Amino acid sequence: MSRDNIMQFSSKSPVQGNLKIKTRGSPRHHARLTGQVRYFTKLVAGRVVDISTSGIALDLQAPLYAAAGSKVRVECDDIGLLDGFVRWAHNGRIGIEFDRSSNASAKVASYFRFFHKDIKPVLKR
Q: Which residues form the PilZ domain (predicted)?
């Protein structure tokens, strides 16, 4: 094998992890906010576990039967209405990625700038 071939193989871009999983786009911050998740006519109350400019995770008080990819709306008094898509749901928690065509990221960025205070979680699951 020539030196040129070796250089050709080594110049490939590195694979992100061995499972080729899409990594998180922005850092998460713990929060103590209350909100509700609306999926069609179903409205479920919950508590925000963590939030970033690209998504939010909530601990729900009741089951919400929304599959991954379903469009939902988070209603939070401190931030406002946030449109997004379900990324995962497991054991009463739900992860939502904000819709890029909405202004949800701007609302969250404004919340971080003016209102957010870093907190440490009190209880773990």
A: 23-105
- Cα separation, 84 vs 118, in Å, equals 24
Domain 27-114 has CATH 3.40.1280.10: no
Could you tell me which of 105, 111, 112, 114 has the C-alpha nearest to residue 84?
105
Structure confidence by residue, pLDDT tens digits, 46-99: 999 998 888 999 999 999 999 999 999 999 988 899 999 999 999 999 999 999
CB 56 within 8 A of CB 30: no
φ and ψ of 33, to 5 deg? -125, 150
pTM, whole model, 2 decimals?
0.70
Q: Supply the DSSP symbol for 27.
A: -
| Whether 74 contacts 97, CB under 8 Å | no
